[in-house]
Specification:
Distance between the termini: 22 Å
Subunit structure: Homodimer.
Number of domains: 2
CATH class of the largest domain: Alpha Beta
Helix content: 10-25%
Structural class: alpha+beta
Number of strands: 10
Family: Belongs to the tRNA pseudouridine synthase TruA family.
Number of helices: 5
Largest sheet: 10 strands, mixed
InterPro entries: PsdUridine_synth_cat_dom_sf, PsdUridine_synth_TruA, PsdUridine_synth_TruA_a/b_dom, PsdUridine_synth_TruA_C, TruA/RsuA/RluB/E/F_N
CATH superfamily of the largest domain: Pseudouridine synthase I, catalytic domain, C-terminal subdomain
Keywords: Isomerase, tRNA processing
Shape: globular
Pfam family, one: PseudoU_synth_1
Strand content: 25-35%
Length: about 240
């Protein structure tokens, strides 16, 4: 029995997220069908994250167990032949039996992209969140530093899902601004349900000069979801990389 690790990229626009559901196409379900068609085995693919409907990934990691004689590095080409164009295997390799794409992960980096101009985009509408009012990116950058560190991020979690603790560690949060595109990068040891999207929504409030950057600390300490910003739409979110 081999344990195969896959690194993949996908456009989540046409999927109901990563995780299999009773209704609707998912990335996990589509990938499992492709692997089962190749190996003639019943396969369960384990994913590094449960990305939501419409969320994209550049460095998603998954693994599965197989008794197939196909060389581990050949799964990439064989699966790409069977997969739709919006899911691409970047790499396939054999890993130790105890490797688990989710539980072995030590951290993740996400990015969220905003287009900050008067009119929304046409071509890139599935990858950018449109904000019409000009944002104060300097204030947003100042606010970023208050998120860094180990905190109880209960104020930045949507209802739903079950976790033992809402304490997480963010090691990096920064903004890259080029013309009318604002890209927010956040790296941490793990993220709560919709945590990144709520952090972005809160930074937008700062960018609108409705709250001061230093008020982020008060929001975190309050543990009150109502005090944080909106959960921005999923289309601007990309899972950039998973760390092991």
């Amino acid at each position: 029995m081999k344990n195969i690790k896959l690194t993949l990229e996908y456009d989540g626009s046409n999927y109901q997220g990563w995780q299999k559901q009773k209704v609707g196409e998912t990335v996990q379900g589509t990938l499992e069908k492709a692997i089962e068609g190749l190996t003639k085995e019943t396969i369960e693919v384990i994913g590094s994250s449960r990305t939501d409907s419409g969320v994209h990934a550049k460095g998603f990691v998954a693994n599965f167990k197989t008794e197939s004689s196909i060389p581990s590095n050949k799964f990439r080409e064989a699966l790409n032949y069977r997969l739709p164009d919006d899911i691409v295997i970047l790499n396939s390799e054999e890993v130790s039996d105890d490797f688990h794409s989710r539980y072995s992960a030590k951290g993740k980096t996400y990015s969220y992209s905003i287009i900050n101009r008067d009119v929304p985009p046409a071509i890139s509408r599935n990858y950018l969140y449109h904000v019409k009012k000009r944002l104060d990116t300097k204030a947003m950058e100042e606010a970023c530093k208050y998120f860094i560190g180990t905190h109880d991020f209960n104020a930045f979690k949507s209802s739903g899902g079950s976790v033992k603790t809402t304490v997480r560690t963010i090691t990096d949060l920064h903004i890259e601004n080029k013309e009318d595109i604002i890209k927010i990068y956040v790296t941490g040891d793990g993220f709560l349900y919709n945590m990144v999207r709520i952090i972005v929504g809160t930074l937008i409030i700062v960018g609108n000069n409705k709250i001061e950057p230093c008020e982020i600390r008060e929001i975190i300490d309050s543990r009150d979801r109502k005090k944080a910003g909106i959960c921005v739409p999923p289309n601007g979110l990309i899972l950039e990389k998973v760390y092991y």
